[in-house]
Specification:
Layout lengths: L1 H7 L19 E6 L9 H13 L1 E11 L9 E8 L5 E9 L7 E11 L5 E11 L3 H9 L4 E5 L3 H4 L3 E6 L8
Parallel strand pairs: 1-2
Antiparallel strand pairs: 2-8, 3-4, 4-5, 5-6, 7-8
Helix pairs in contact: 2-3
The structure holds S-adenosylmethionine.
Length: 177
């Protein structure tokens, strides 16, 4: 995956790492955390992600977290899509988001995939993911723990449906927290 991304984005440096523990020893003006954070399924791990973002944000810089959903916006859903490759292979899938754990921090995402090979044969694959979901207040607390000042950015629900965006500022050096 990194090799494909490096080909598509040659101007970017690529580093493999775990967002809970990565330490590059550098800071950046901005840190962007996108839907990969869906795979964080416990509050302690969410706090580790917040700490990773914080130590890589320069004092006075910002971190943007764009989440697929929070507990308050979670909604069971079904989507389908696919892709036709230039080499004759093709994929169609149905993605089913469901099974929110009523007292926990996870839900299920099942994929039913139809993969067509060059010779026209089709095989079916079932893929199953466990994703994490946290309440707005849990997110705010996790992001504030390392020292971020946290704002929720208003999004148009007609466009973004369940998505939530947090703009987090790391206070400038010497600024009161
Ligand atoms: C839904 S995809 C995100 C795709 C990404 N938004 C993109 O457009 O390329 C989820 C990604 O999260 C990564 N991931 C899951 N757990 C991770 C972790 N603890 N640290 C870093 N990456 C992780 C997976 O390897 C996968 O590439």
């Amino acid at each position: 995956m990194l090799a494909i991304s490096a080909r598509l984005n040659p101007e970017c440096e690529h580093v493999a790492g775990d967002m809970r523990s990565l330490r590059l020893g550098r800071t950046f003006d901005a840190v962007f955390v996108h839907d990969a954070v869906s795979y964080i399924t416990t509050l302690p791990n969410l706090e580790h992600v917040a700490a990773t973002a914080y130590v890589h944000t320069r004092p006075g810089g910002a971190a943007l977290f764009v989440l697929d959903c929070v507990r308050e916006t979670f909604a069971p859903d079904t989507e389908s899509s696919g892709h036709d490759g230039a080499d004759g292979r093709a994929l169609r899938y149905l993605e089913w988001t469901h099974d929110l754990d009523p007292s926990g921090t996870t839900f299920a995402v099942d994929f039913a995939c139809l993969l067509r090979d060059r010779d026209g044969s089709i095989r079916t694959v079932h893929d199953w993911h466990v994703n994490g979901v946290f309440a707005l207040a849990e997110w705010r607390a996790a992001l504030a723990t390392p020292g971020f000042a946290v704002d929720v950015v208003p999004l148009d629900p007609a466009v973004h449906e369940t998505q939530v965006m947090f703009a987090c500022r790391r206070p400038a050096a010497g600024a009161p927290r």
